[in-house]
Specification:
Layout lengths: L5 E6 L8 H10 L3 E4 L1 H6 L12 E3 L1 H4 L4 E8 L2
Antiparallel strand pairs: 1-4, 2-4, 3-4
């Protein structure tokens, strides 16, 4: 991926070991990547989802959707 490029990791899982743990391991192994807060990405589209600041986490009982997780990571320029 070229410098400044973004990588989105998404799952339809709600399990921390399949979501945050994977992202944190990736970031530890690739120090040239950092998290782009999902709230920032969504705000550019005029969208706000309470509780989704760092990562996007949609919960069936809260958001009336299927379960979903996403993280946006950006490679340093």
């Amino acid at each position: 991926m070229k410098p400044g490029g973004r990588l989105v990791y998404g799952t339809c899982s709600l399990l921390e070991e399949e979501n945050e743990a994977i992202v944190e391991r990736f970031l530890a192994a690739h120090p040239d990547f950092s998290i782009v807060p999902c709230a920032e990405v969504l705000a550019r589209q005029g969208v706000t989802i309470p509780g989704c600041e760092r990562y996007l986490r949609l919960l069936p009982h809260v958001h009336d959707t299927d379960g979903f997780f996403a993280a946006v990571m950006q490679r340093a320029p």
